[in-house]
Amino acid sequence: MKCTKEHRLEFTDRAAELLKGMTLEEKVSLMSGKMSLRQEMADREVDPENKHYNYIPYPAGGIERLGIPPMLFCDGPRGVVCGTGKATCFPVPMLRGASFDVELEERIGHAIGREVRAFGGNFFGGVCVNLPYNPGWGRSQETYGEESFHLGQMGSALVRGVQEEDVIACVKHFAFNQMENARFKVDVTCNKRTEREVYLPHFKECIEAGAASVMSSYNLYQGVRCGHHHYLLNEVLKGEWDFDGFVVSDFYWGVKDTVEAANGGQDIEMAHTLYFGDKLVQAVRDGLVPEEKVDKSALRIIRTLLAFTAQHKAAADPSVLACGEHVSLALESARKGITLLQNEGQVLPFDRERVKKLLVLGTLGDKEPIGDHGSSWVRPPYVISPLQGLEMAAPGTEVTFHPGDDLETARKLAAAADAVVFVVGYDHNDEGEFVSEDEAEGFTGAMGGDRKGSLGLHPKDVELIKAVGPANGNAAVVLIGGNMIMMTEWKDAVGAVLMAYYPGMEGGRALGEILFGDVNPSGKLPFVLPHEEGDLPAVDWDATGQWYDYYHGYAKLEKEGKEPLLPYGFGGSYTTFEISDPAFKAEKDQVLASCKVRNTGGRAGEEVVQLYVGFGNSAVDRPVKLLRGFRRVSLAPGEEREVAIACPIGKLAYFNERTGAMEVERMEYQVYIGTSAHDRDLAAGTITI
Ligand code: BGC
């Protein structure tokens, strides 16, 4: 039996019973994190390798006397952050988003859940579904893409997988948290439609999938800190969405006021106590926080922990950590997410018979492509670099590595090689989690932050590709990064481009297999790639106030009639697919779309069939179309299959500002099925609702 909401609610009476026997201090202690930041910092200084952030699960809650188990927090999302050299490091969610594979994400959730339990934890803080308003957001790698529907599908799959292993899944950061450098100070504003249609639905989807915890964000929304946000936490999450679990604050600086936070719906101040604890007890005594508020939070915490603990019978099993099955899953994920963006002249795959001398260029070639060094840093037993992956894929090929800092030498080496692979993009210094000293009271955290300046490659890499690419007819660029990287400037200097994101501990192996054709690339872009950065919304990364427009990403380009360089949902393959016999209907409460997909090329391959719904007849301003379903299919050469995709009609709704409700318009909708968001890849029809 799973620890579903229904199952958890069965523990309400027991939790209420326990509450009756508790003092105010005990109830408040459940709401107060138990780590000491000072102690943690001291530990880290003594032994930074082993005593890094979250090296053991962080406790909160729990009262031994009453048999209430503690919550034991393990961060993510690219695996479990605990331990050193132990956990499986999966590709980052952005790559997993590019796989468009919900079933695979659920299996990753299971593996992560098992590893959380192996570390002695019971809480996974790594379901990140924030939607990047602009791809420069430094923590984009932790989320799945730019599209709310897709985020909801992927995030809820992770929730299901993790919770089926009896581990509480925490969905974060609620809400509007998609600017890193300014995260402690920025006040995000937008209109109601943007809030309800663009930034909240994916959170709701995860709650509907049964997520038992939510982490509030640091930033402000409409002038109120999200960790204190009565409207977001009490009204929307716990009220409208009927969320039964508990909210935790983002760590250390997510709560800034005892009374506001407790009354605003914050259940646990993490990871240590600054504003809850004694201060909260006093606030209750002073009549500033009704005791009933504390009771409600305590009940949520006790109920959830009792339910998950009762559910879990097995003892912790460390043998599952980075076990064969989990590592294979990391590899499968990398294989399915890496995305072929360009393949002029069929440069790829390389032919082992012809490529006897291979040159790998770029400083990232021999680095570990696993992502940033912030709170999501997983330390696996090993990481295969792109260089190692290429050496493994072609044992009979002489592989030379050069960082590319000396253009003349690089050009000579390239001219003498049979093929060249540039490995360029970003690392943990360029993008990722960031804590600045002035914002966080003397604490300086790991580098990263939002991208500085541009969404393109570093000038030195652009120069390298432009200078050296033309020296070899078999040149491919491998891009490493957590979100879209501009290509306009340099793409013509090489034949092929692969987007590798941060592919995880087995990422180098997957890259080698794809470059040499053992694996057919099948990832799809979970974001649009424009011709110009200016086609995307502008963000001031240091702002104290930021407006989010209704349109971003592909929806913005389509609305403005701007052709993208590469459309949302696009990804190349070494084989070809043909879509035929599209059919659409609206039946009962569902949109049903189907088509046939045939593999018309000479290799086995996987394709992601996508369903979009268009709103051309709407009475209000709406996107041209939006993704409303997708399905991955695997096809042998010549094989044809029928693919059916269903979407609940409720997902076509817009927020009616007049009635204050989500409503489905009665009208004719355009519907599209195909292999990317671009018209040329879609078969169109209509349905009437
Ligand atoms: C991050 C969260 C993380 C928490 C714990 C915060 O700075 O925003 O994603 O779970 O720290 O370290």
From TrEMBL:
The keyword RNA-binding does not apply. It holds the Pfam family Glyco_hydro_3_C. The keyword Hydrolase applies. It comes from the Bacteria. GO terms for molecular function: beta-glucosidase activity. Residues 607-677 form the Fibronectin type III-like domain. Transmembrane segments: none annotated. InterPro entries: Cellulose_deg_GH3, Fn3-like, GH, Glyco_hydro_3_C, Glyco_hydro_3_C_sf, Glyco_hydro_3_N, Glyco_hydro_3_N_sf, Ig-like_fold. GO terms for biological process: glucan catabolic process. Keywords: Hydrolase. Belongs to the glycosyl hydrolase 3 family. This is Glycosyl hydrolase.
